[in-house]
Write a structure and sequence with these properties.
It contains six helices and no strands. It folds into two domains: 2-65; 70-113. The mean pLDDT is 90. With 117 residues, the chain is an all-alpha fold. α2 (28-41) packs across α4 (55-65).
Length: 117
């Protein structure tokens, strides 16, 4: 079971890294999942993730206070606006835009109502 947890953690880290460049793929939720999986499989991998220069502070903020740093909130907002803007530019059907507006609006509401890290 330990190897399964570690494999799931590594997959989550890979998805988080991909999410850095793909606006529709979230980064932090995958990092939180990776921390969860690593805590159950490998103290070395868990420590590596928590101590990581880039990823560690985001995870620690969330674990300690459920907070998101203002810079991360701004980056998420810009990414979401870019995705929606691209959808408008490529003229996706109006019902898809409506679904995106509702879902992305909900995501932004969640992000911006979290305390600042």
């Amino acid at each position: 079971m330990q190897y399964l947890w570690a494999a799931l953690g590594l997959i989550c880290v890979a998805l988080a890294v991909i999410g850095i460049v793909l606006p529709l793929l979230p980064t932090v939720p995958f990092l939180l999942l990776a921390a969860f999986f690593f805590a159950r499989s490998s103290s070395r991998l868990h420590h590596w993730l928590i101590a990581h220069r880039t990823f560690g502070p985001l995870i620690q903020d969330w674990q300690s206070s459920g907070s998101i740093r203002p810079a991360a909130k701004k980056a998420a907002t810009v990414s979401i606006a870019a995705v929606f803007g691209i959808s408008v530019l490529i003229a996706v059907p109006i019902y898809v835009l409506a679904i995106q507006a509702v879902v992305l609006g909900g995501v932004l509401t969640f992000i911006w109502t979290r305390p600042n890290g």
